[in-house]
């Protein structure tokens, strides 16, 4: 059996190592330059590879091709494989063949990483033998070589789901569907939604699909009649048939014979979007018989991934929050909605055609100062100059933090939630968030 692997990143190299471990004839090809860490893994395992080119004859001689999620189906090599009827699959599809572990699969346009990390934390804290993999940055295939876990919590992007065919989740979670990556789907929301719904494919009556019943795109795309698994809708808006709700800091669940109420008052997560994320993660935990007490305690101890409404520090009763991951208007709306104190808001960067009008009511109610951080802040200023009392601008994150410190009074929140891409001043959103954190530590916390 000959396997060709396209792309030598985390997923591709993991798949190559698993293929070799299973005695398959494997070849790895990457059109770009392979990172040193992955090159070293391939070389140590004596797996043949190439970079900077695709040797078509060798790739198309394979019985099966495993491709990186980043390679679109319209790529010439994928089109040629289709003509020759060579199956093209994802690393997740491939890895799923070699383990009997249960899969908890989480997708959605927004909130995937937070929900995946929270679900993993709830299960691991309860003592379950659980692994973490997928779009979160860890290869499932590489973990399956040792195959030492009973459960895997997987974050899945639509690109990964597109090349999954026989794979089946035991528990699937769909958080939301909003326009994103539409260039990969012919600018069709219907095709993008269908991609997300693949997380629930192949399910039988013993499998569970946990989904957001308040999301109109999910309601439109999900055919409950044809669905083979057990559907568990969650809702903040009392949607019909809801099995999981979140009110007054309490999550209530009705899952067949399991009825539970969970105290979420000490959760570290802020905002309405995180109430949705928390409902989904808690539903998974209850389906796996985690106790109410364990869940409540784990909600309190959970630490989210960096740059997602992350509390950097508190000084003189002013909280500094790093939400650099909020690169679009919708993410900022959730941040502003979730914070109850007066806000000094740091925003800006490379505008992506943003319509800020949905933020105006929240900004009028909560934002006392807007500090525009970017090379071109005209659009932000125009959008909020009649809404926010004080607007300043800078291209220095240190200056932004100094200004925020001077203008803040006890009880305020200084919030970095940019609504924009970062690459006018920073390498990426992580770099921007790290620089904010460093500036707060140096100027405010004086570490």
From TrEMBL:
EC number: 6.3.2.9
GO annotation (BP), single: peptidoglycan biosynthetic process
InterPro entries (alphabetical): Folylpolyglutamate_synth_CS (IPR018109), Mur-like_cat_sf (IPR036565), Mur_ligase_C (IPR004101), Mur_ligase_C_dom_sf (IPR036615), Mur_ligase_cen (IPR013221), MurD (IPR005762)
Domain Mur ligase central, chain residue ranges per copy: 106-285
Enzyme class per UniProt: ligase
Reactions accelerated catalytically: UDP-N-acetyl-alpha-D-muramoyl-L-alanine + D-glutamate + ATP = UDP-N-acetyl-alpha-D-muramoyl-L-alanyl-D-glutamate + ADP + phosphate + H(+)
Molecular-function annotations in GO: ATP binding; tetrahydrofolylpolyglutamate synthase activity; UDP-N-acetylmuramoylalanine-D-glutamate ligase activity
GO cellular component labels: cytoplasm
Pathway annotation from the record: Cell wall biogenesis; peptidoglycan biosynthesis
Coiled-coil regions, chain positions: none
Residues reported to bind ATP: 108-114
Record's keyword annotation contains Mitochondrion: no
Cellular location(s): Cytoplasm
Keyword tags: ATP-binding, Cell cycle, Cell division, Cell shape, Cell wall biogenesis/degradation, Cytoplasm, Ligase, Nucleotide-binding, Peptidoglycan synthesis
Reported function: Cell wall formation. Catalyzes the addition of glutamate to the nucleotide precursor UDP-N-acetylmuramoyl-L-alanine (UMA).
Family designation: Belongs to the MurCDEF family.
NCBIfam families: murD
Annotated protein name in UniProt: UDP-N-acetylmuramoylalanine--D-glutamate ligase
